[in-house]
Amino acid sequence: MTTAIILAGGIGKRANLGIPKQYFRIKEKMIIEYTLEKVSSVNSVDQIILVSHPEFLKTARELLERFPKITDVVPGGRTRNESLYNGFLKVPMGEEKVIAHDAVRPFTPARIFNEISRLLDEQPVVTTVNPITGNLIELDDGKVKDIHDRSRYAMGEAPTGYRYGALKTTLEKALREGYLNEIPHDILLAMKAGFDVRVLHCNCFNLKITFREDLRVAEALMRILEEGA
Question: I want to staple 138 with a disulfide (CB 3.0 to 4.6 A). Which of 12, 60, 122, 146 is the partner?
């Protein structure tokens, strides 16, 4: 059994939309609805826990009727890691796998979730990456200091999958030792807890809607996908 935790607790400052971007509408649906449609269609995902911005809990709970795989809606925390922890508290004990995904990534292919679930049969933690296509430039005081070999690096993406015990150990250790909200990403928490993090090369379009301009890209792509369906 696999539980997906959809992280929708952010406030979306960089998009400057007046509301969290995951609740912004593109055409007739909110961004979070497109993401939930995708995740709900994944065969390897048995249930979904939705972690919402606290001020939008009512809106999030209304999604329960449309998406029967959602088993719980919980408020997000002060940070992404805290939101993940809040969601994890609702994962049934004894669950085999947990996949964390961003609500503002509506284009992630279903095959990525299935592949992560498969890799978790052998690995404790698996995260998604994409290749860096431009120059990897190191800066120093507003000037170029060096250009690095980009083949040694990758762009961090989502989703990230955990075996249940690995995520439990990761989050409980971070909470117990006081760095849950001090470290910026759960992958680093897992590494600090002693786990190797395997990467899955997505090599796919996996837009994270971050800026206002991203909304135009997303809307155009959704229109193309609908016309091609």
Answer: 146
